[in-house]
User: Which sequence fits this backbone?
């Protein structure tokens, strides 16, 4: 538990020898652990298999819609009702789509780029546009902006949400800022839950852009590791109350409730935004897979059923996240070379090394068989200005593997940190 | 069987009285038949329900991929193999996607609008662009162009495909023409099958636009009413042979093989186009619903199994299409006021009235309880220059209903035609 920064070169070198031996031992075991993505484990996916028990005869909706056939652009009525309950909005403020909420976000932004959004100053593609990007954040959000030529402005992420002082200042001055990416609950990768005050300020702030939108990726709304999910102020309500009803674009999916590649996604927004979305969606497609929606509704039923189901996920997830904390605490606690988050839900732990160490840590961990999300991924343009953030995704590997991978990661952090300290000495 | 155009006003008026009586009798029955879209009937959808027999335990691909989890942007390997066989291309020339091939086409064009296509002169959205539109054609194709600001040039559709003389002349002269919509087999709505010569000319022709693309919507590749599907020259092969490998963009789906709203779609193209598509798709989504792909592959298996399955569809479809021909022949044959196609497969029959009658026929048919696709739908901008084309979609209603609807349609055509002839007299 000694702060490594207080040790002299000799002590550091001695430590380094022990660590190298541990590292080589790991390497000799020929591990191949993939911790690059937040994937549910097979045990979690098993929880939803009963959804298919009656699939062969399960094709009529409660009002008699044949879910095998065309139609229903906005989703099955009972699926809209379930997601309305899930997101705390009215049924006609919901669109239920296909398997990917990421695709729904991408497609919303593509529509904004080509056509512009309601109340806006024309297509986003015809002027300079920028998004605010609280970071560390979700690499796939940033990739969408990069692909579509939308500039990105990094924003610090605090324990209660993004740096609202900075945000209010920027959006008031710069009409090119048309959006912000938010994962408001159990944020990827930090586990942050936005406070009511932050949500209120996001809803109320005055923006120079008349068509400013909050992309509210509420992917982990019910994904606590223990007990009730953290409360989160309803963004759509807050935006309506603040006189900015079109500002909120809310996304959710069952990717991490049922099946990661084969769940159901949904979007919630004002009726104006919903109408605008459906007008364009109706050109793109005839409608979503209603059979999958029907199976999901009959399996997930209502919020109490969903919460009971999520408790079963939590029973699998919590020991893994506990192991991350335990191993990191034992190996790195008090050593002054890393700090990390301790989320109450979600899929990730965010760890910061000393400045300039993350790339090297991830490289040598990979050489010993543990693949982590590439350094920089949690920042716009994959550039972590301090090269220190590492996203830990412990959900997929088995419990033992998580423990092993965390120990190896800690050894790698120690090794790289010591090298850094020795170089600085 | 008398040509109505040879009758005098008195004879026409007498006929009109009889027809009005028949029309009023229909109207009194309070029918509500929807023939607006090419939807499979419930009996057809039942054919694929056995796909779900093992859904609860069916989640591992043949190579052990867990189809419940993330990954596999280009589709499940065995699904790619099946569609490669279906479309006559190599496995790495195929992307297997979600439920909607229309969405795949829309998204391809959106990518072209925003980013441009390989070998192209930049984003389509930054210059004047036009598509050639053989018509009568598919309204949803035309709607995509209209939404995205791509001009449409109507092209006559003959028995063996579109007017190639006109096409060759236009594409050679006008570099704004970057695409053509084709439904090459059992075309919507005429049932046309493109001849080998037409396919060859499409592949070989010189185009002023370096990035000209053929959007080859092969939705009805195996959808014959009896016996083997009609042969169709392989467009990708023809384009490769002609030195235009990037020209072919081929789409297909199981919407009318398994489930109309919940099938699997695929795209085939050169490796250059596939790589380009995947690069952008990888930003939009993590991957398609592989569980649905797996179920489809295990159910449809190979081409002999697909053809045997389609024979069961044909057994349901043929009597309905026979009824359309029988009733139209009996009621309108030799009367000189309408002609119609007699497709060997697909989902539609195309009927032309005398000029200027289609809108009124569809209006009075709806008043008597039979809804047809709105007049003009089969032309760009919903404008049928001669107001004569009616799309007949007999797949969804029951056999008796098809017969009734066709009789009513014939009565409506006769009534409106007689009024027209009387007005001209």
Assistant:
């Amino acid at each position: 538990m000694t702060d490594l920064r207080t040790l002299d070169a000799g002590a550091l070198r001695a430590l380094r020898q022990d660590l190298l031996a541990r590292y080589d031992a790991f390497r000799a075991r020929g591990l191949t652990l993939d911790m690059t993505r937040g994937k549910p484990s097979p045990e979690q996916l098993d929880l939803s298999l009963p959804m298919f028990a009656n699939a062969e005869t399960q094709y009529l909706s409660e009002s008699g819609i044949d879910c095998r056939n065309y139609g229903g652009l906005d989703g099955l009525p009972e699926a809209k009702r379930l997601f309305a309950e899930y997101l705390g909005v009215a049924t006609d403020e919901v669109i239920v789509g296909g398997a990917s909420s990421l695709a729904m976000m991408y497609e919303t932004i593509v529509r904004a780029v080509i056509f512009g959004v309601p109340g806006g100053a024309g297509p986003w593609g015809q002027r300079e546009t920028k998004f605010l990007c609280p970071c560390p954040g979700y690499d796939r959000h940033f990739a969408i902006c990069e692909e579509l030529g939308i500039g990105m402005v990094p924003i610090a992420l605090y324990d209660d949400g993004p740096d609202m002082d900075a945000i209010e200042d920027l959006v008031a001055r710069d009409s090119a800022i048309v959006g912000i990416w938010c994962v408001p609950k159990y944020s990827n990768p930090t586990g942050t839950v936005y406070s009511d005050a932050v949500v209120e300020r996001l809803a109320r702030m005055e923006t120079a852009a008349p068509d400013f939108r909050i992309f509210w990726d509420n992917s982990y709304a019910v994904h606590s590791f223990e007990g009730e999910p953290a409360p989160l102020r309803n963004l759509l309500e807050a935006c309506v109350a603040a006189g900015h009803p079109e500002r909120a674009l809310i996304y959710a999916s069952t990717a991490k409730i049922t099946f990661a590649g084969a769940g159901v996604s949904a979007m919630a927004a004002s009726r104006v935004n919903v109408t605008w979305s459906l007008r364009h969606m109706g050109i793109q497609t005839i409608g979503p897979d209603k059979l999958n929606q029907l199976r999901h509704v009959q399996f997930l039923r209502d919020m109490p059923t969903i919460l009971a189901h999520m408790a079963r996920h939590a029973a699998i997830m919590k020991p893994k996240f506990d192991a991350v904390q335990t191993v990191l605490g034992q190996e790195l606690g008090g050593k002054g070379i890393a700090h990390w988050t301790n989320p109450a839900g979600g899929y990730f732990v965010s760890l910061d090394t000393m400045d300039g160490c993350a790339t090297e840590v991830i490289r040598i961990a990979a050489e010993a068989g543990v693949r982590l999300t590439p350094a920089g991924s949690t920042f716009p343009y994959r550039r972590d200005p301090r090269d220190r953030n590492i996203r830990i995704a412990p959900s997929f590997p088995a419990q033992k593997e998580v423990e092993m991978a965390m120990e190896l990661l800690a050894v790698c952090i120690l090794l790289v940190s010591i090298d850094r300290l020795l170089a600085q000495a």
Remarks:
- Chain B touches chain A through 53 residues (CB under 8 Å).
- The mean pLDDT of chain B is 97.
- The first strand of chain B starts at residue 33 and ends at 35.
